[in-house]
Design brief:
alpha+beta, globular, two-stranded antiparallel sheet
Length: 235
């Protein structure tokens, strides 16, 4: 586990029959209210979560601190600031902090909702598999109250065609000092990931999002991490 320096998983979802988050402001308000009602229903059943508005000065600073600490991304902030436009567009954005460890969601950004699993420090004894299961449980609980845009052939539709399918983006930072570049490049190619140098770390990012379920992708990730860490230890 000491070789894993960070895991960031983002799952993009859009609500059925609504345009993407660049929709008219009143639609974003409807989406926010729908998600707030869902959180209230989940809380009533013991799936505790807190909601922080990103456009309410009372909670915005706290929400942005959580987002920055966990390396989450506000896509519209990035794009609006580069264009010299109001970085608070669109309105009715928010952050959900779930009781489950390391699980969050951002609403009304580039997609209606983005579920996140974020862990910048993997401690000894951490059960990553259990935390992945918790992420799936949170998403499945939402499906009981909200229907997401889905196609039987392609999977979930997202604002970025790259993530159509599971809508899942996976990034893992690894310290693998004993694995040479040639072996690492071959392993990355074989597993369907891409690798980027990030200082002394290797950042793995998934390429494939179609043809697998979210559970299959997360299970594969666990096997891949075990495999590449063993490769490092045997060198």
């Amino acid at each position: 586990l000491t070789h894993i320096k960070g895991i960031n998983i983002c799952v993009f979802r859009n609500i059925k029959s609504y345009p993407f988050a660049l929709s008219p402001n009143n639609k974003n308000q409807e989406i926010e209210e729908l998600i707030k009602n869902t959180i209230n229903s989940m809380n009533a059943k013991g799936h505790y979560a807190n909601y922080f508005s990103l456009t309410d000065p009372m909670t915005k600073t706290q929400a942005e601190e959580i987002i920055a600490k966990n390396n989450m991304r506000l896509y519209h902030n990035d794009k609006m600031q580069k264009s010299g436009l109001d970085p608070d567009f669109p309105n009715h954005r928010g952050l959900i902090q779930f009781q489950k460890d390391n699980i969050y969601a951002i609403i009304n950004d580039i997609d209606h909702i983005k579920f996140y699993y974020c862990s910048s420090e993997i401690k000894e004894g951490c059960n990553i598999g259990k935390e992945f299961v918790n992420l799936i449980k949170v998403m499945n609980e939402f499906i009981k109250y909200i229907k997401f845009e889905y196609d039987n052939k392609f999977g979930f539709f997202t604002s970025c065609p790259r993530y159509v399918g599971t809508g899942m983006k996976i990034k893992v930072d690894l310290s693998l000092p004993n694995v040479n570049k040639e072996d690492m490049d071959l392993w990355i190619l074989e597993k369907g990931y891409k690798g980027n140098k990030k200082g002394d770390l290797i950042e793995l990012e998934n390429v494939k999002t179609i043809g697998l379920t979210e559970t299959e992708m997360l299970c594969n990730l666990l096997f891949y991490l075990k495999d590449v860490i063993e490769m490092n230890e045997t060198k």
